[in-house]
Amino acid sequence: MQMDGPDKLLDLLKQIVEQLPSLLTMIACMIFAITRWKRLPKVSLLVLISLALLFVHGIAFSIIYNWVPGWFVKPGPYDAAVMRNVYLVLGLLSNGSAALIFAILLGAIFIQREPVEQRG
To answer: Domain of 100?
Structure first.
């Protein structure tokens, strides 16, 4: 059953509200990174980039998951297989891009670290 425009918008709004705690946490972390800019500019830049990408990723994939499957799945005998493939591709894109974004964030965590001296 196809959802019409208002139902899709309501579903999108619900998806974004579900992500609200994560989105607000990302905003708070971005503000914290900005406050540390003068002290650690490279780290702050990488953190800001990764958090901004995560923020956009969350909203973008909410939109994508809301509309894209409806473009490919038409009523018929193969709709289950097509739906499975559409969600497989979307899942790979979503998780692959999230992995790259988390790699940037992880790089920010370890950049400009002072080596710990060995105690003997």
So the answer is: 5-110
Question: For residues 107 and 49, is the Cβ–Cβ distance under 8 A?
Answer: no
Task: From first to last of the 120 residues of the chain, give the pLDDT tens digit.
Answer: 455 678 889 999 999 999 999 999 999 999 999 999 999 999 999 999 999 999 999 999 999 999 898 888 777 777 788 889 999 999 999 999 999 999 999 999 888 777 777 665
Q: Is residue 93 part of a domain?
A: yes
Give residue for tokens 């940037």: 104
**What pTM was computed for the model?**
0.82
The token pair that represents 24 in the structure block: 């607000």
Number of folded domains in the chain? 1
The dihedral sign for the CA sequence 13, 15, 16, 21 = positive
Is 118 domain-assigned?
A: no
